[in-house]
Amino acid sequence: MGSEAIRAVTDADGMEAVAAVDPRAASTVVSLGEGRSLTCTGDLAEAIAQSAPDVMVDFTTADAAEENLRTALAAGVNCVVGTTGLAEDALAELAREAPEDTALFYAPNFAIGAVLMMQFAEKAARFMPHAEIIELHHDKKLDAPSGTAIRTARMIAAARDRVPTSPGSETELESMKGARGALVHEVSVHSVRLPGLVAHQEVLFGGQSQTLSIRHDSIDRASFMPGVVLAVREVCSRSGLVVGLENFLGE
Ligand SMILES: NC(=O)c1ccc[n+]([C@@H]2O[C@H](COP(=O)([O-])OP(=O)(O)OC[C@H]3O[C@@H](n4cnc5c(N)ncnc54)[C@H](O)[C@@H]3O)[C@@H](O)[C@H]2O)c1
C-alpha cells in the first residue's frame, strides 16, 4: 500500500512524494515511473526534518503507526492513516496532543465503493435491524475483524432503533466457540482469510420473508488510491481528528 500510495501521489496534480520510510525495507528503491525513483530510508524523524512534508501517509502496522503518527504530528505534519487495528480513542488522543491546525485523518477504507456500502448499510439498518457482516481479506492481513467491518457495525448499531435478540446476540448458545462470529457493537461479524482475496465485504440484512445483501469488492489495491489522493489534498485544510472518507465526498 505504501509503494502504491507513493506512485499515486506522484501521478496526482500538484503533489510530490518527497520521502519514503520503512525501517524493514530501508535502501529499497521505489520506482515512480519514467525513470524516476525514490529511495526508502529507515528513520521517519530524519526524513521529516530533511524533506519538510505537508502530509505523511501511513500504511504500516498498528504498533508502528502509533509511533509514526506521534513523530509526524509533533513536527506539525498532517497525517493520513489507512493502517487498521488502531483504536479510535488512541487516534483521538494523538490528535488532541498535536499542535493546533494539524489534522489526523483516518479511513478504515479508502475505496469509494466501500464508503457507499457502509452508507447504504447504515440506511438499511433503520428499516431492517437484523444484520450480519461477512468480511473477506487476503491471508496476510494481520488484524481481524477488519477496520471496515468494525466501522460498519458501529454505523449499523447507531442507525437501528432496536437490537434484535436473535440472531446476532445469542453467541452463548454456540456449541463451538466462534461459530456465530464476533459480536461487534451487537452485530455478528465473520472474518474470512484466504489467499487470492484482496478486500471484500458483504452486509446481510434479514426481514420478514426477505433478505438484502450489500457487497463491495476491492479487486486490486489501485481501488484505494483515488481516496488516498483525495485525503492528502483535503487533510491540509482540516484540524484535529477526522474519521472516514465520506467527510471529503460532499453531499
Ligand atoms: N484503509 C484502507 O483502505 C486500507 C487498504 C488496504 C490496507 N490497509 C491497511 O494498511 C496496512 C498496511 O497494509 P499492507 O497491505 O500495505 O501491509 P504490508 O505488510 O504489505 O506493508 C506494511 C509495511 O509497513 C512496514 N513497516 C513496519 N514498521 C514500519 C515503521 N515503523 N515505519 C514504516 N514502515 C513500517 C513493513 O516493513 C511493511 O513493508 C494494514 O493495516 C492494512 O490493514 C488499509
Q: Could you tell me which ligands this complex binds, including any ions or cofactors?
A: nicotinamide-adenine-dinucleotide
Please provide the count of β strands. Answer: 12
What is the overall number of helices?
A: 7
Structural class: alpha/beta
Brief summary of the model shown:
The protein has helices spanning 2-11, 44-51, 62-74, 88-97, 112-127, 147-159, 225-235; strands spanning 20-21, 29-33, 36-41, 55-58, 78-81, 103-106, 130-137, 182-184, 187-193, 199-207, 210-218, 240-243. It is α/β, with parallel strands linked by helices and 251 residues long.
Which key phrases capture this entry?
alpha/beta; five-stranded mixed sheet; elongated; binds nicotinamide-adenine-dinucleotide
Q: In words, what does this structure look like?
A:
This protein is 32% helix and 26% strand. By secondary structure, it is α/β, with parallel strands linked by helices. Helix 1 crosses helix 7 (225-235). The mean pLDDT is 93. The structure holds nicotinamide-adenine-dinucleotide. Nicotinamide-adenine-dinucleotide binds at residues 1-2, 21-25, 59-61, 64, 68, 82-85, 107-110, 141, 224.
Question: Topology of this structure?
Answer:
Layout: H1 2-11, E1 20-21, E2 29-33, E3 36-41, H2 44-51, E4 55-58, H3 62-74, E5 78-81, H4 88-97, E6 103-106, H5 112-127, E7 130-137, H6 147-159, E8 182-184, E9 187-193, E10 199-207, E11 210-218, H7 225-235, E12 240-243
Parallel strand pairs: 1-3, 4-5, 5-6, 6-12, 7-9
Antiparallel strand pairs: 2-3, 7-10, 8-9, 10-11
Bound molecules: nicotinamide-adenine-dinucleotide.
Nicotinamide-adenine-dinucleotide binds next to helix 3.
